[in-house]
Amino acid sequence: MISTKVGSRELDAEIAKLLGWRTRPLEVTNGHTGDITRRTVWVDPKTNQPANVPFYSTDLQAAYDLAIWMAPQAAGALIIDGQHTRVQLGDAEPNYHSDPVLALCLAAFKAHPEG
Length: 115
Known about the structure:
The chain is of the alpha+beta class. Helix content is 29%, strand content 30%. A hairpin with a 5-residue loop joins strand 5 (84-89) and strand 6.
């Protein structure tokens, strides 16, 4: 179980791995010098193409997209009350967190049929 108070790229990477993202090496040749640079890229499981991992844990739109993908048929509610956020998707137990983005991410995993 992951416990965090703030989102991070490390958390985004962990979420991506759970969703089937993987990394692979990529060699890029500089057209001017011919030098070869090796780097690691993430591969989107939906397209099997290199892509940037979404900012799941820090961007509300990315968290919303995650929730739609994880629980497409679930009705949901996100309520921000002072310093707390409550999110419920479908029949899953409500999720509470001080950060609305993290609350939505956690609720998405709870609402997923295999969650």
